[in-house]
Amino acid sequence: MSALFAFLHHLAFLTMTTVLTIQLVVLGQPLTLQSARKLQIVDRVLGIAAVALLIVGFLRVFYFEKGAAYYFHNAAFHAKLTLFAIAALLSIYPTVQFLHWRKSLKQGQVPQLAEQQRRRMRLIVHAELTALVGMALCAALMAKGIGVIH
User: How far is CA 18 from CA 31, 78, 114, in A?
Assistant: First the structure.
């Protein structure tokens, strides 16, 4: 079971990374009906992957790995959770924008996306990807026992 949950945890992380990369690329191109729909879909996938990452991660902490005492006494674990929270909070702005597009898309119209909004969303996605890189670093540190708080 431990290996299965490790796989699911890594799969959710890779899914988040892939989806954010797709968002970054699509937001770098002119918005079309198809690309706006794609952004809505991948944003849903991002949300599902983030929830899966969190749930599977905590199941690993409490049931399948070194135990909660180890993780909750590790600074790298706290940093990893903080980076996850930052990425989750940052993702709110693009998600709200994508949700506002529903009416336009149902009518077959390309949603309005001002250049300033596009730049802001790309900056946010860059920050989310940076947070994920930081999370991967924290995971590697934890795996090697670095960050233990005595």
Answer: 20, 24, 25
